[in-house]
Amino acid sequence: MGRHKQYTRKRMAKVGEQLATNERSRLAPTPRNDITSREKEILELLAQGWTARETADKVELSVRTVERYIDNLRLKMNARNAAHLITCAFSRGTLRAVRGVARIVS
Fold this sequence. Notes:
Elements: H1 2-27, H2 37-47, H3 52-59, H4 63-77, H5 82-91, E1 95-98, E2 101-104
Antiparallel strand pairs: 1-2
Helix pairs in contact: 2-4, 3-4, 4-5
C-alpha cells in the first residue's frame, strides 16, 4: 500500500502542476495587434524619444490622454514599461528603423 500512496502523491503533484500551468496560461494576456492609427502615431513618437508632454503638444492632446494611449499600448503588447513597449514593438515588427528613425510598419 505504501507504493500506491507514493504513486498517488506523485500523480496528484503532476496533475496539480499541470492545472497551475494551464491556469497561468489562461490568465496571461495575449498580445493584441489591433493598434489604432492614433496609438501608432503615439508609439512612433515615443520610440523617437519624445516625452508624453512633448507628444501631447505635437498631436494637440492632453498629457493625460497621451499617457492613456501609452498605457493601452503597454497592455496590448504585454509590456512592463515604456522602454519595454518599444522593444516589444520592434521585436514584433510593429516598428522598424528607417534611416535611423523609428517608423511604424504598415
